[in-house]
Amino acid sequence: MTAFARTDEQRMLAETLDASLAGGVADWNAAVVATGLGALGVPAEEDGLGTDLRDAAVVAAALGRANVVLPWAEHWVATRLGARGEDGPRADTREAVLVMAGADSNRRWAEDALTVLHCAEIVGLGRAMLRDAALFSKERKQFGVAIGSFQALRHRMADMAMILEQADAITALAITAFDGEDDVRARAVSAARVVCDDAARLVGEGAVQIHGAMGLTAELRLGGYFRRARTLAQGDGTARAHLRRYAA
């Protein structure tokens, strides 16, 4: 569960998605259309499920935990900008979303919304990587004992858990900042982006190291989690660029 799921409905949504995505469903129709998630981002007065960014973040985090790679952030932001339709994602690239945004104020909002939803997905990916690393540390043995009993690795996993909690909390804070002024939102989103970049790197590298040479092989799902987390961390502007925006 994440800090974005604050209400009972959001917690129930997260649990439902975790159960339905457990099989690694990667098809848009099965993951989004059949579950009714396409109505998120559509105002209630248009018979949608509302435009709460937290709901979208709950979905992004669940997709991350299952490593189901779909353009959910792009779809949801495009929906908020007015795109409609039932045949697949309403946008599947950042560029397509920004074309829809048009004016400067809408464009800045769209960029920040994409960034914070990608942060939520990184948190989900990180939780899955930490879970797999912790489980594997109980199975892998050296010198006749499970490596999870080694103090150095226990400290490493504690550090991984700590940066994930920070990433989760600061992403939730950034989502809250969307209710305020543009400059406050921009600063909060950039802070979340930098922390989530660190989380993607530290948690991913730690999980790979704990798995040893198998960490990036196709045989383990960890490699897919790590590659997706690094891909998201390298998008939405660099961490250095967000540090500059935060400072400004």
Explain what this protein looks like in three dimensions.
A hairpin with a 2-residue loop joins strand 1 and strand 2 (145-146). The chain is built from 10 helices and 2 strands; from the N terminus they run H-H-H-H-H-H-E-E-H-H-H-H. It is mainly α. It folds into 2 domains: 8-101, no CATH class; 108-247, Up-down Bundle (Butyryl-CoA Dehydrogenase, subunit A, domain 3). The protein starts with 7 loop residues before the first helix and ends with a helix. The relative contact order is 0.11. The chain is 65% helix and 2% strand. It has a two-stranded antiparallel sheet.
How much strand content do the residues show?
Answer: under 5%
Mean of pLDDT: 87
Distance between the termini: 33 Å
- Please summarize the sheet with the most strands: 2 strands, antiparallel
User: Which CATH architecture of the largest domain?
Assistant: Up-down Bundle
Uncertain spans, ≥5 residues at pLDDT below 50?
none
The largest sheet has its strands arranged as: 1-2
* CATH level-1 class of the largest domain: Mainly Alpha
User: What is the rounded Rg?
Assistant: 18 Å
From N to C, what is the helix and strand string? HHHHHHEEHHHH
Our count of helices gives 10
Q: What is the CATH homologous superfamily assignment of the largest domain?
A: Butyryl-CoA Dehydrogenase, subunit A, domain 3
Overall 3D geometry?
Answer: globular
